[in-house]
Design a protein that fits this description.
Number of domains: 2
Order of helices and strands: HHEHHEEHEHEHEEEEEH
Shape: elongated
Strand content: 15-25%
Strand order of the largest sheet: 4-10-9-8-5-6-7
Structural class: alpha+beta
Radius of gyration: 20 Å
Length: 255
């Protein structure tokens, strides 16, 4: 079951969602209370996880009272998740390649595009966020927990120093209420890219593969506007898609 849980988390489920699904696999068919006992997770958390699994098509629900849940095969979900991540990464890479090509064609100054490789990228991003900023737009994808914590801490600190922050975050993650402040706005999106994009005033940092954190591209000048347009598309369209999915869930399906 540990292998299944890790695979589902890699595909985009939270830890609790993966454990609830694994518990249903063991039980076959069960009520939310039975799942909570099997997974050793509080019942309120189980209801939230089951709601998410229903929306992803990973479980089915009976018409009986009390409602009983049954796990479906995860193959379609995992394949779809892989395809979405690959497509998202491809779009980001295509944008980076086009941008670099345009920089070369227009003979732009080297200072407008800087490529970094190897270690020290997380340290660079932290120093990038420590500069005085007016506006910060961040799109955080599939980061490791340690790296994500470091970057989020610096984004929150920047907002407390006066920067207006907009953060787009994967729906399977959640920020504590304690980080919220008048300068900090967060939206949850259904599928976040596997990379990292931070736009701060007239600079942008792009990390195509956030898991390895091996390559980082820094853009400056007019080309940053293109990344800002892409960010606004994610901020509006992906968020609306997430909200439509959330509204589609009927409350009575949870009971």
């Amino acid at each position: 079951m540990e292998v299944l849980i890790r695979a589902l988390m890699e595909a985009g489920l939270s830890g609790e969602e993966a454990k609830v699904y694994a518990a249903l696999i063991r039980l076959g068919e069960a009520t939310a209370r039975e799942v909570a006992e099997e997974a050793k997770i509080p019942t309120t958390h189980v209801y939230e996880a089951l709601s998410a699994l229903l929306s992803r098509g990973l479980v089915s629900l009976t018409d009986t009272r009390p409602r009983r849940y049954c796990a479906k095969m995860p193959e379609h979900f995992i394949r779809k998740s892989i395809e979405e991540k690959v497509n998202s990464l491809r779009n980001i890479m295509d944008m980076a390649i086009k941008t670099i090509s345009q920089i070369r064609v227009n003979s732009m100054n080297r200072s407008q595009c800087e490529v970094m490789m190897g270690r020290g990228i997380v340290d660079f991003i932290e120093s990038f966020l420590e500069k005085p900023r007016r506006n910060i737009y961040a799109l955080i994808g599939d980061l490791s927990e340690k790296v994500e914590t470091r970057i989020l801490d610096n984004i929150v600190k920047a907002s407390k120093r006066g920067a207006k922050v907009k953060l787009a975050l994967q729906a399977s993650k959640a920020l504590p209420q304690s980080v919220m402040n008048p300068n900090f706005e967060v939206r949850y999106i259904e599928v976040a890219p596997p990379g990292l994009l931070i736009i701060a005033d007239d600079e942008a940092v792009l990390v195509p593969d956030a898991q390895s954190m091996s390559t980082c591209v820094v853009f400056r000048g007019d080309i940053v506007k293109r990344y800002l347009e892409y960010y606004h598309h994610v901020w509006v369209e992906h968020y609306l898609h997430f909200m439509r999915r959330a509204r589609a869930m009927r409350i009575d399906e949870l009971y």
